Amino acid sequence: MINYIWFALVFLGILVGVLSGNGEGISKAIVNSSGSTVTFIIELTGIMCFWCGVMKVAEKSGFTEKLSKILRPILQIIFKEAAKDEKALGAIVMNLTANMMGLSNAATPFGIKAMEEMDRLNHEKGTASNDMALFLVLNAACIQLVPSTIISIRAACNSSNPGIIILPAIVSTATAATVGVICCKILQRYF
Asked: Domain Nucleoside transporter/FeoB GTPase Gate spans what residues (predicted)?
């Protein structure tokens, strides 16, 4: 459905532009934006490679393992059923740790594994358990210690200080995660 909406918006925009006599302006805008988009993607790719390398160093140095040791006791309090199962809790910890470090590519397999493990523990097959819903919220609103994607985009757009976003990102994502957990815990009492 969204493809039809986008097509309609683009088609109608071009049609109105041509009918109003701005066909040449539309052509120039398409060519200019295409060129600047390719340049932006190339710059962004280089910066993303740098941040992926930094995150790999953090992983190899044991920083992510230390972070997972800090998270484990907190997650044992939050999750009821999954905390009792070492496989499920391990996958949850690894997913959230990878997300916190900006390693979303590494986090995805752990997220899938965590859901599979929680589904194995689920008493009502075909229905998401409270732990599964809570994990989904934490995965979506995960605390970002290093928001590498945003830093990369800001650097590619020639920001004077791309890293200034780190503290606001930590505060906003920590707030989102806290509110998400609180809402899940409240809703678990009623549903």
From this structure: 42-154
Q: How far apart are CA 78 and CA 84, in angstroms?
A: 11
How many CB atoms within 10 Å of residue 52?
16
Q: At which residue do the structure tokens 């302006």 appear?
A: 25
Range of the domain at 164: 2-190
Share of the chain above pLDDT 90, in %: 28
HSE toward the beta carbon, residue 36, CA cutoff 13 A: 8
**Arithmetic mean of pLDDT, 173-187:** 94
Task: Assess contact for 151 and 163: CB atoms under 8 A.
Answer: yes
What's the rounded mean pLDDT across residues 100-125? 85
Radius of gyration of the chain (CA): 22
